Batch of 2 targets.
Target 1
Amino acid sequence: MDGLRIGFADGEVVRGVSFDLRAGEVLALVGESGAGKSLTARALLGMLPRRAEVAGRVLLRGRPVTPADLGRRLAWIPQDAMSALSPVHRVEDQLAFAVRAVARVGRGDALAVARRALAGVGLAPDAAAAFPHALSGGMRQRAVIAMALVNNPDLVVADEPTTALDPERQERVLALLRERCAVAGAALLLVSHDLAAVRRHADRVAVTYAGRIVELGPAELVLGRPVAPYTRGLLASLPAAGLSADALPGDGLSADGLPTAGRGEGLPGDGPPGDELPGDRTSEGGTSGGGLPGDRTSEGGTSGGGLPWDGTSGGGLPRRPRLPVLAGAPPAPGAAGAGCAFAPRCPHAGDVCRRTEPAPRAVEGRSVACHDPFGEAA
Ligand SMILES: Nc1ncnc2c1ncn2[C@@H]1O[C@H](COP(=O)(O)OP(=O)(O)OP(=O)(O)O)[C@@H](O)[C@H]1O
Ligand code: SF4
Ligand SMILES: [Mg+2]
């Protein structure tokens, strides 16, 4: 992706996003609500709203993507598996349709391919032959993973693919998704609010803020030793998840200053992927309450004291775990001025920050868009 810009009537909301993705790699997009993650993900697939004004290029193996690539070279895994599955067809038939949409094969052969793909994600023949509503949320999301990969795409884009599941199943499904993509040699772009899961599953992480990438690099560096003030603030507000590591006392961004736990210890669902849990067929709407400490809801992208995530919403999908809310709020769409969009919230902001948008540059093994990442000038 090269120089992606997306605007609506209110102004530009994605403001020059560039990254590359290698075969078999997992790149996670993280950042607060409204940062432009979903639009960026959709732009890869050519699935943007019609009224969006778009600039920039998306090249797949050196050539521009076209609508015909969707379902062949590009695959999409949505948040809600039901939106990817037809309720009136058996799961295996839906995969067979997908196979026949891109290859000249007979129905029997397509069904055989479909069944192999479903077996590959751990769905037994009776589950493969079921209608989607007869399956649990976890099993449906496995079926969607099988569907996404059945035509051996080059790139899989997954926008919060496990949010509808409880934390333990989230972990299993994410591990499965990563494993299936690796087996297929497909790159995976993963949009997630779950930084602990990102740390476990992503090779690289792109931290987005107000429509730009502020830090991009290997997951262990970006989440273990963050450099950009925004990333540092984000991680410093997650102390008990063990992600803040070299947290930044006195950085002015952490909400509460709780003690920091050991990095990577005691995270829920750390185990390897496995079969569905007993009772998974009735798992719709998880209630585990296992969100990251410090997670808050912030629907609509406003900051302030949201409710702790309780895993249920009463309205179908469980509430998704949200990134913790930092002091202040991101700029409204189109309101980012000439300087760094994070300046009003940044303890290191200096005059240059308010005047000039920082360009990305190499800092300690990753790319960082910040004039003064170590706060030396402030
Ligand atoms: N169809 C649209 N029309 C106008 N504005 C839009 C549209 N879709 C998204 N936006 C705006 O673009 C910005 C980025 O939206 P996007 O959905 O990409 O955010 P996000 O990072 O995925 O957030 P979240 O974490 O809440 O999913 C938001 O300010 C949003 O309001
Ligand atoms: S450019 Fe300036 S305001 Fe922006 S994050 Fe860096 S130090 Fe803070
Ligand atoms: Mg989104």
Target 2
Amino acid sequence: MTTFYRLLGFLRPYKGGLIASLILASAAMVMTVAIPYLTGLAVDALQTGARHARAHELALRNHDRHTLLVLALVIVGVVLIRWALTYLRRIIAGRVSLGIEYDLRGLLYGHLQRLELGFFDHQQTGQLMSRATVDLQAVRFFLGYGLVFILQSALTLVLAGIAMIVINPGLGLIAMLPVPFVVVISQRYGRRARPAIQEVQQRIAELTANAEENISGVRVVKSFAREPLQLKRFRHSVSRVFDQAMVSTRLEARYNPMIGFLPQLGLAAVLLIGGVSVIHGHLSLGQFSAFFLYLNMLIVPMRSLGVTLGLAQRATASGARIFQVLDRAPRLTSPPGAPPLPPGGGHIEFRGVTLRYEDPDEFGAAYSRTREGEAIRASETAQGGRPDSPAPVADAESAGTAAPPAPPPPASSREPRRARAVLRDIDLDVPAGRTIALVGATGSGKTSLVSLISRLYDPTAGRVLLDGVDVQSVNLRSLRQSVAVVSDDPFLFSASIAENIAYARPGASLAEVEEAARRAQAHEFIARLPQGFQTQVGERGLTLSGGQRQRLAIARALLADPRALILDDATSSVDSSTERLIKRALDEAMVGRTTLIIAHRLSTIALADEIVVLDHGRVIARGDHSQLLETSPLYREIVAKGLPEQVFLTRAPREREVSGL
Ligand SMILES: Nc1ncnc2c1ncn2[C@@H]1O[C@H](COP(=O)(O)OP(=O)(O)OP(=O)(O)O)[C@@H](O)[C@H]1O
Ligand SMILES: [Mg+2]
């Protein structure tokens, strides 16, 4: 229920529109209620007219005919006014609904942007996407239309009820008798439907996540010819949605007709009792007609009550899922009013730094992934899961309980043990302007270490300082503008090459972009592309090779002109001639700033003034090449055997690289 009230909060900016649409709806209702009354009068007029005609009282008969004509015209007028009111109301309600959608999208997306990287590490993209689309739609549809519809239905009930009681209190009460039952049944329905619908939404999210993974992982899928498996998994997800949607459909099928059926009983009772009253002359035929029409008016809102309540349940279920995201507070922020990073040359210090990545938190995806994994295993043993086999969830409903929201897995058995520290007690001082190479086996914590500088993560203990100030104490934006990271797998947006490079500094002129590209040794290959700098790349454009992307990323970093430059694995995926180009680019890039290079190749290591060796999250040695050859057995081993990656990635003979050192 609190979710529901919170959802209503989104209506606040639209109070005006909402009130207007309520007033319009009420006015339209008054018109609607007037019609049976006018019809009743007309029936009476035609009945007396017929009597007068039989008695050959022509003057009176003409008067009745005139009355009938006037009444017919009034009814036409009333209908036209109602049409105009409804038209206006729909326009206004549409504005409210779309406005809410607009606001919610902004809010959700804005919030996602504020969440730290660690949050996204544990999320499936599809899960978040489905909250931003499917769930959002459900909320806006209900707030924009459903709510007014419910209020309108309630108003119809009240107005028609009053009208009936005014016409004939006894008969009115009989007609209204089903109402309390309908309310009780609707409530019951609501209580049972919500968890079922929430589960449907959750499974749709899983399905979206599944589809998203299938598509973005298509390269792996195809290279291992695993399409059948993927299809099977996808079908499994689809059938999970199907099963659960059937649960809620069954609930709906059980309750909805019941809600519609009760008022029909009232109708029959009124037909009988009211008819007898007419025969006995206690009630005029006109009154009876009006009464009957009022009763009919009740049927539609009552029958659609189930549907509208369904909408409300869906909106609440979806709202809960949206609030789950909105309530997840960002854990990595700068203190309010934090000063910008003071100017400096890029002196980096790590003091007693320990890093433990956070466990996946209570929020969604981790649990759904586990459940999905389990379900797939289950379905594989049971020879595939398509709907005809009664799914366990469907049983839950027939056993009399709607599928409960799936419980999170028991913490003890599922939760990974508390994450171990990936960096331990690191003390490292990198003077401004120096170039340091970080080497170490895979998983030794190199990427983790450098990601602390621009605060992609915060250390669990210890401090990271940039130019003498704790990075956690300064404005995050200014910090990140001062540190550029070239990752080993650079991401390109669906945009032109020029836009992708200028991403680091959107105001940059084309000349500056070209200059950065030239310094990153990317100019030549860009010139050979069909539209040069305007060539579209990324998901909807040309696909670039790994080495090309890396050089674009270096150009991007150069354009940002940071005081600290971090190059992660930047030469891992290129051949030796490209590597030479990249080396030149790096040489260029390093001038006048502090650079940390995570190096897998000796030729890259050679660019550095100093080498730091990392092992299992600790700094175990530091020095230049010849010093380390003497002091560090691990470094000697690295030089002798090559880093594990080198075995795969280096195509040029090792001897040449070593001699080039
Ligand atoms: N976002 C993350 N969440 C949880 N654990 C992580 C995360 N990133 C890395 N780890 C873990 O931290 C450890 C160090 O990873 P890191 O990426 O820093 O290694 P690396 O030295 O850069 O390795 P490589 O040379 O393969 O790139 C690994 O055991 C890894 O599993
Ligand atoms: Mg790494």
